């Protein structure tokens, strides 16, 4: 049994991770949050992926996703036939050492709703519940927006990344420096699109889309300037992009929203999104 720590996974390893994820999703009937387009496009600078092999077969995987410099998100899986054998514990220990060496303050474990063994593991290692997000999929047609017209401009430059980072800092209280780096990475990712919403020449909103799966559009990083909320701009932006990508052949449209963000939840439901699952986040101080 060996654990392979990777700064970048090979095409063969990515296929193995994808196949294991499909097996786990099918058997456990879970969504299993793995950001595989990020895994595919790692920078290669630091270790973020841990693969557990037994007799040449991938039986466990742990991926790390750092969106700021203080804490890093953790997601993973173990082959159903190899559980309760300490596989994920060993993956976690390897990841914890890496996180500590890089100076992270916290590990943030993603635990799907009703995944009781995963929740029990998080609590066993001392992680405490922090917050939850709903997973939503487009199920209905919703109603068309009335007014709120916004020009959608594809973000491409460092200057665009800086504008979006400022919007994220003002809108969500996030680190502007961290967001600038994240957006810059997204602009260089061929599986992602980033848009600015412009009203009367002013950049008032931003949204990103992951297109890593052939039939899916996943919307994230959606922010509207606080003083511009409630004017229909957010609804117009999401409605327009959904329809645009439906016309381009994307049949599944998905997003996530914090459970306490009732206004955003209502906006998404008005467009036709419905709740499909929930993810709890468990924080472990290092």
Automatic annotation (TrEMBL):
<keyword id="KW-0012">Acyltransferase</keyword>
<dbReference type="InterPro" id="IPR016181">
    <property type="entry name" value="Acyl_CoA_acyltransferase"/>
</dbReference>
<dbReference type="InterPro" id="IPR000182">
    <property type="entry name" value="GNAT_dom"/>
</dbReference>
<feature type="domain" description="N-acetyltransferase">
    <location>
        <begin position="1"/>
        <end position="159"/>
    </location>
</feature>
<feature type="domain" description="N-acetyltransferase">
    <location>
        <begin position="151"/>
        <end position="286"/>
    </location>
</feature>
<dbReference type="Pfam" id="PF00583">
    <property type="entry name" value="Acetyltransf_1"/>
</dbReference>
<protein>
    <recommendedName>
        <fullName>N-acetyltransferase domain-containing protein</fullName>
    </recommendedName>
</protein>
<dbReference type="GO" id="GO:0016747">
    <property type="term" value="F:acyltransferase activity, transferring groups other than amino-acyl groups"/>
</dbReference>
<dbReference type="InterPro" id="IPR050832">
    <property type="entry name" value="Bact_Acetyltransf"/>
</dbReference>
<keyword id="KW-0808">Transferase</keyword>
